[in-house]
Amino acid sequence: MTNPVIVVHYHELWLKGGNRRFFLGKLHTALRQSLQGIPVERIEQPGDRYIVRLGDGAPLEEAVKRLERIPGVAYYAVARPVARAIEDLCTAAWDEIQGLEFKSFAVRAKRSDKSFPPTSMEIEKIVGRFLLDRFRAAGREVRVQLKDPAVTCHIEVTPGPLLVYARKIPGIGGLPANTAGRITCLLSGGFDSAVAAYQMMKRGAHLSFVHFYGTGARPGESSLHIASGLARVLTPYQFQAKLYRVPFEAIQREIVRAAPEGVRILLYRRMMLRIAEAFARRDRSLALLTGDSLAQVASQTLRNLAAVDAVARMPVFRPLIGTDKVDILATAKKIGTYEISSEPFHDCCPVFMPRSPELSASPEELDRAEANLDVPGLVMQGARGATLEKFVFAGGRVEASEPQAVVPVDDSRAALA
Questions:
Q1: For strand 75-82 and strand 387-394, is the pairing parallel, antiparallel, or unpaired?
Q2: Is residue 223 one of the residues assigned to a domain?
């Protein structure tokens, strides 16, 4: 039994009661899709874990790397498959941990196959005594410590081989992809919205992205390549993604022409919500998503957020609302979006920035500021000017389509107001 075996554990899915089968089926699908292109003999589910039996020539490092981006996985481990004999089990446990540096250890056994004669407690005692004797014979000062040991040797008794491992790799947790409905995310080029998207994909939501960009940037500074790069990094968490690219500068100029200076940014954001909502209805999304963090900038004060949201007909989710920038940047580094968002680009929001932005607007104030604007017409202008880029993760790679014009959305100007 030389082929590697990966043990995959989940946690939160056990809370799903009668719906557990649905969530476990989605996790099984995610494992299969993520490992596409890697030789896999089979994926089994003995008890409360999945076991991935890799085939001949399977690249173990690549398989482990892909498991890092599967929502719903609590932790996983590369295990040694062992013949069903207690002597072989003891030897494999020694091979697994003898090269590690530690002062205390414990053995933990789980049996999904009760036909293996020793009980879990008996396995722990037999293997633990064997390891302790071997360490003492080797002159190492190691002791058994059942509570908070430095190293735990895990043994899992399955209907097939016994599995032994000592190093657990944390997964991202949460719920499997495509189990919580559709959400449309307003994706800027910055750090926050990509992290917000990741947080919601961890909860099983399937996201489409809408990016608003300006024109007139210097070569290489357009935000379009930033948005595409972020969508490319995020796609493996859900396997497919859409990115709507909306030219916004002409709409901004119209807002600047007709509205008071102090509320420009807030009117930009209201217009973005309306346009994103048009695409959300097209994709049957049930909510919008932004990367706002409370009071991080002037437009994100509590009153301003409420005034902007007043035009939305869908719920607006803000998973980062109570998160500080240090934590947001740490997550961006972890998921691989930090470097992309750090690149220089032309952000459309600061264009025509007011000298003294409003900190405490009301919905009524913003309604009055929009009185001279053709709001439905501007929403339709943004929606009809958009292009669509599609991303697919398969075989360990993300492929992107050439941007195409968007099929016209609902022509009802009243519906887009």
A1: unpaired
A2: yes
Distance CA 140, CA 117 (A): 31
pTM of the model: 0.90
Q: Which ranges in 259-412 belong to alpha helices (H)?
A: 264-282, 302-309, 325-335, 338-342, 363-369, 375-384
The residue whose two tokens read 């007043």 is: 310
360 confidence band (pLDDT: 50, 70, 90): confident
Tokens for 220, please give them.
């290489």
Q: Is residue 176 part of a domain?
A: no
Residues 200 and 299 occupy one common structural domain: yes
Q: What is the dihedral of CA 89, 94, 100, 102, to 10 degrees?
A: 100
Which residue segment(s) compose the domain that 152 sits in? 5-170
Same domain? For 190 and 162 the reply is no
Tell whether the torsion through CA atoms of 375, 376, 377 and 381 is positive or negative: positive
pLDDT of residue 2: 64
Q: Give the CB-side neighbour count of residue 375, counting CA atoms within 13 A.
A: 21
How far are the Cα atoms of 234, 270, 274, 398 from residue 316, in angstroms, in the given order?
A: 20, 12, 11, 28
Is residue 153 domain-shared with residue 117, that is, in the same domain?
A: yes
pLDDT band at 412 (very low <50, low <70, confident <90, very high): very low
Residue 111 belongs to a domain with what CATH number? 3.30.2130.30
- Angle CA 172–178–182, to nearest 5: 115
Q: Which residue has the tokens 């109570």?
A: 322
- The total domain count for the chain is 2
> What are 205-255's pLDDT values in tens digits?
999 999 999 875 555 567 899 999 999 999 999 999 999 999 999 999 999
* Pairwise CA distance, residues 169 & 133, whole Å: 28
Give the domain CATH number at 327. Answer: 3.40.50.620
